[in-house]
């Protein structure tokens, strides 16, 4: 009850304008709703900030930082911002645009000559703007962070081995490494690390005193832990490596600090000491730059917006006749989402500590309806049904895969002949060792899995780290009948 009183106190403390539009009863109802749906989705802890007309109307933590432990989430608990970091990187680039040090449509090779693509035309053609709107033609390269532990410079060097997925500016595929490249451009221009630049130019001016550009810079113990479901049980995960692609998603923050950020973003980047970017630059950031497909978010299947675009670091779509800007963030075991209705001066930011906890979408649209646009649509029921259906479809695909297994087959060769070292200029190295009647695959000393014979020359099995997913190792033989290639989860390695 004391915590609720603290929330309601915010209504009085932050001025009369908010009182005219948002009632204490609305806040109390939404506060109760958050806790109810959090429990329904099984999320151990969440933290939320809601603002209207440049005032905080709700700011609160829910649940615990780590399942099985008593420490509660509060408004100062740090969570991963993940990909909502991208909007901050865009603002930093916008500042440099304002200073005449870079232009949105400058060629990238001007600043990063080492970033080469398989097609020389692409290398010449890619602009700074393209890095920020996911239309370079290069598909996802998240294997750089999922299966490797290499510096950004090495990631950029290996981009030349990545085959394009579509023509330059001919589509949309979400691309984290391109945002990392944008961060490197910021470093080249300023002569400082991206982590220092974002601290100096965003966190300090806005008074975001708890926010850290990377987890290694956190100075408090009030930090959440990541969680995921493993074999039907919610478990605490180890923190992932501090992201080498920091400018794409490394920031950690709290509801307290993110309330300051979303107010700044609503108010054309203004803050108490001035503004982060010029009005024309702020307008350019939120202008539609590219289209994104409905498949990008399952929620679009239910929302059915008339248009879906991507600005500079923001997804956009229409909702009840209003323009909605939003972005999600996901790291292993952690989630974030932010949204704004600029016309209504309304924004929300939501943190969670459970892998892909899609209750974030429920709360985002519920908040917009509840506080601003009206309506009693049961987003919780609809989205739970949607994501349950997606899980059922995934289980069905798994069953179909099992059904396609050819029984009574044997490997082409003795198991010992599959062992050895494999390499790829793009994916790095994989080592396969024999352990009894199983093969142990070690990819770049980052991902390990023990696989058993499935059929023919395909092996499947669990990862070393607890997961509901299984690894697949398929071997190809050359014309001499010797093992030549390992395909591990689709990545191709050639035997040394």
How would you summarize the topology of this molecule?
Blueprint: H1 2-13, H2 16-21, H3 24-41, E1 45-52, E2 55-63, E3 79-80, H4 85-98, H5 120-125, H6 128-132, H7 143-146, H8 152-158, H9 176-190, H10 194-206, E4 227-230, E5 233-236, H11 246-249, E6 252-253, H12 255-266, E7 270-271, E8 274-275, H13 279-286, E9 290-291, H14 300-303, E10 308-310, E11 315-319, E12 322-331, E13 334-341, E14 346-352, H15 359-373, H16 379-403, E15 420-424, E16 428-435, E17 438-443, E18 447-455, E19 458-462, E20 470-477, E21 483-488, E22 491-495
Antiparallel strand pairs: 1-2, 1-14, 3-6, 4-5, 7-8, 9-10, 10-11, 11-12, 12-13, 13-14, 15-16, 15-22, 16-17, 17-18, 18-19, 19-20, 20-21, 21-22
Helix pairs in contact: 1-3, 3-15, 4-9, 15-16
């Amino acid at each position: 009850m004391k915590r609720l009183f603290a929330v309601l106190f915010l209504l009085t403390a932050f001025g009369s304008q908010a009182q005219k539009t948002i009632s204490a009863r609305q806040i109390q109802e939404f506060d109760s709703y958050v806790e109810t749906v959090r429990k329904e989705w099984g999320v151990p802890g969440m933290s939320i900030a809601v603002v209207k007309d440049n005032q905080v109307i709700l700011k609160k933590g829910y649940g615990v930082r780590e399942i099985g432990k008593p420490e509660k989430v509060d408004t100062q608990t740090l969570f991963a911002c993940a990909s909502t970091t991208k909007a901050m990187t865009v603002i930093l680039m916008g500042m440099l645009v304002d200073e005449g040090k870079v232009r949105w449509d400058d060629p990238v090779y001007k600043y990063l000559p080492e970033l080469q693509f398989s097609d020389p035309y692409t290398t010449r053609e890619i602009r700074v703007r393209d890095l920020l709107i996911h239309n370079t033609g290069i598909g996802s390269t998240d294997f750089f962070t999922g299966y490797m532990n290499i510096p950004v410079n090495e990631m950029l060097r290996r981009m030349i081995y990545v085959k394009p997925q579509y023509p330059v500016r001919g589509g949309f595929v979400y691309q984290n490494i391109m945002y990392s490249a944008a961060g490197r451009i910021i470093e080249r221009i300023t002569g400082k690390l991206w982590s220092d630049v974002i601290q100096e130019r965003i966190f300090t001016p806005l008074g975001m005193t708890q926010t850290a550009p990377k987890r290694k810079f956190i100075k408090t113990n009030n930090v959440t832990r990541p969680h995921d479901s493993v074999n039907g049980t919610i478990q605490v995960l180890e923190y992932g490596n501090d992201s080498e692609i920091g400018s794409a998603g490394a920031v950690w923050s709290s509801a307290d600090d993110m309330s300051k950020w979303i107010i700044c973003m609503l108010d054309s980047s203004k803050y108490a000491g001035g503004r982060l970017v010029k009005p024309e630059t702020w307008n350019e950031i939120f202008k539609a730059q590219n289209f994104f497909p409905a498949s990008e978010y399952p929620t679009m299947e239910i929302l059915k917006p008339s248009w879906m675009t991507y600005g500079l670091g923001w997804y956009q779509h229409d909702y009840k006749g209003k323009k909605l800007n939003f972005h999600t963030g996901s790291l292993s075991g952690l989630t974030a989402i932010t949204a704004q209705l600029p016309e209504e001066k309304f924004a929300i930011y939501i943190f969670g500590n459970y892998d892909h906890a899609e209750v974030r979408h429920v709360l985002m649209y519920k908040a917009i309806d509840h506080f601003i646009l009206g309506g009693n649509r049961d987003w919780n029921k609809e989205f739970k049904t949607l994501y349950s259906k997606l899980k059922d479809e995934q289980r069905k695909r798994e069953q179909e895969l099992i059904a396609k297994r050819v029984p009574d087959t044997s490997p082409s060769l003795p198991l010992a002949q599959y062992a050895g070292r494999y390499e790829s200029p793009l994916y790095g190295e994989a080592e396969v060792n024999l352990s009894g009647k199983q093969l142990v695959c070690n990819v770049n000393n980052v991902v390990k899995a023990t696989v058993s014979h499935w059929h023919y020359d395909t092996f499947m099995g669990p990862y070393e780290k607890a997961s509901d997913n299984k690894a697949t190792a398929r071997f190809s033989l050359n014309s001499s009948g010797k093992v030549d290639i390992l395909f591990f989860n689709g990545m191709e390695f050639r035997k040394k």
